[in-house]
């Protein structure tokens, strides 16, 4: 008996062929054929399901940035244009959705770093392009979410974090080797600065702050250029320093 378009047809050619196989094969081999058939029926998520998931993540990223990580999931569903059940089918709880948003922003930021690395030309300008692109991804919005209750050691989050750290290190190494980046800064210095400088001051909206973010970031970038004009207090800030803090 084989299924076709949701119905069973006991007299079909497929069914007959299967019965011939069943009679001529031992039980174990019959099971192998059946198992193979079942495995072939495992399909990838449908295109519309993937689109719905992406719409949910995009809407959540926008609303977390605007209102913080505690925005009601019903409001996220409404902005995404899907039903509440679709949200919970993809993300069983708020932590799962927040984690996906964090990973999404980090992955998009990593892609910006990869684009910068692939570009030929001035090494420091590549670092500059990455820093400005990171601000456009609203990476500062991650801070309150990363500090929330979800598992910060989840494999997806760790993989995204390690990827971006490695790429930024490559960008900085290239600029440092070219003699364009001061020697007393590290990955942590850059990521902390991008996060802090792209966050709106207390009492101001994101829209107002966005008008000045790139100006402020360029002032910071000018301070990274070699030769250094001053001696920085303390030591270069690594990601391990941040994790231990």
Automatic annotation (TrEMBL):
GO MF terms, alphabetically ordered: DNA-binding transcription factor activity; transcription cis-regulatory region binding
Organism name: Streptomyces aquilus
Taxonomic placement: Bacteria, Bacillati, Actinomycetota, Actinomycetes, Kitasatosporales
DNA-binding region: 72-91
Keyword terms, alphabetized: DNA-binding, Transcription, Transcription regulation
Protein's name in the database: TetR/AcrR family transcriptional regulator
Boundaries of every HTH tetR-type domain copy: 50-109
Keyword DNA-binding: yes
Annotated region (Disordered), positions in chain: 1-25
